[in-house]
């Protein structure tokens, strides 16, 4: 099973699951046209509704109703939509990376079709924000405004 999200002018995020028996979901990023050595938050969002641009894509995809977190802290909760939370581009403004997402492997792969990917202007605080920012940190990672987005669709072989 395969899925892809084309983010106009910025690249793509691909998802693949070799078989339902193992349920391993590989996520691959090929992103470009960013400033050099820039860090941005990236997440799966709930909806695939671009009627108001990236604003109408809703909150992070969170089928297990957990607080925001990071795969960097495997014993802490995190949304399935948290992905890698942040990416940092190289000196040419590009980011290429693949990993196996253990959280996406625990949900129905079909459930990501029609959802969206959002790249944020800011950096995700990984759910570790404190003080007055703590509540928002546990929802969004205080990732900031939405810079770019695309809808996750089925991908052919």
Brief rundown of the structure:
With 157 residues, the protein is mainly beta.
Identify the overall geometry.
globular
Distance between the termini: 9 Å
Number of helices: 1
What is the helix content?
A: under 10%
Which structural category do the helix and sheet elements fall into? mainly beta
Q: Which runs of at least 5 residues are low in confidence (pLDDT < 50)?
A: none
Order of helices and strands: EEEEEEEEHE
Q: Which percent band covers the strand fraction? A: 35-45%
Tell how many strands the DSSP assignment holds. Answer: 9
- Report the sheet with the most strands, covering strand number, pairing sense and barrel closure: 8 strands, antiparallel
- What value does the average pLDDT take? 93
- What gyration radius follows from the Cα positions, in whole Å? 15 Å
Strand order of the largest sheet: 6-4-8-9-1-2-3-7
Question: What report would you give on this structure?
Answer:
The chain has 157 residues and is mostly beta strands. It has one helix and nine strands; from the N terminus they run ββββββββαβ. The protein has one helix spanning 134-140, and strands at 2-7, 11-17, 25-31, 39-45, 51-54, 85-88, 95-101, 116-120, 146-154. Strands 6-4-8-9-1-2-3-7 form an eight-stranded antiparallel sheet, with no helix packed on it.
């Amino acid at each position: 099973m395969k899925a892809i999200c084309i983010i106009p002018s910025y690249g793509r995020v691909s998802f693949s699951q070799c078989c339902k028996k193992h349920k391993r979901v590989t996520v691959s990023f090929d992103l470009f046209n960013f400033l050099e050595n820039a860090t941005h938050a990236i997440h799966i969002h709930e909806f695939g509704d671009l009627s108001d641009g990236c604003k109408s894509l809703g909150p992070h995809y969170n089928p297990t109703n957990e607080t925001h977190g990071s795969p960097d802290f495997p014993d802490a909760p995190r949304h399935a939509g948290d992905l890698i939370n942040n990416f940092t581009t190289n000196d040419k403004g590009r980011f290429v990376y693949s990993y196996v997402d253990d959280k996406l492997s625990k949900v129905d792969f079909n459930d990501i079709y029609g959802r969206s990917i959002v790249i944020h202007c800011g950096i995700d605080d990984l759910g570790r924000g404190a003080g007055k920012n703590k509540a928002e940190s546990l929802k969004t990672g205080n990732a900031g405004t939405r810079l770019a987005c695309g809808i996750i669709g089925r991908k052919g072989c």
